[in-house]
Amino acid sequence: MTSVLDRLREGEIIVGDGSYVFTLEKRGYVKAGKFTPESACEHPGAVKQLAIEFARAGADVTQTFTYGSTEGMLEGCAYTSEQINQAACDIAWEVARDKKTLVAGGITQTK
Questions:
Q1: pTM value?
Q2: How far apart are CA 102 and CA 58, in angstroms?
């Protein structure tokens, strides 16, 4: 696979996915709030389906649904950041292998 930097140097436009929280909220899988990426553990099929839909719509990048999954932001959550991050990464890599997309992590500040 050609690196993302090489692709950009060649003038290619790279399209990413996005809107996991809003779309999953509209579908009834999350309630936007203090933490939402626990859906990667609670509803992995819904997260995977959305990633597939983004790829079908033309996304070149599959993002991990990990934004907000740091220790400081998950106080009171039933899952650890390690559990959420692993589940989200597993989903993203599975979709990326099937749809031939790149994988990017969703990150946030720790406090």
A1: 0.88
A2: 12
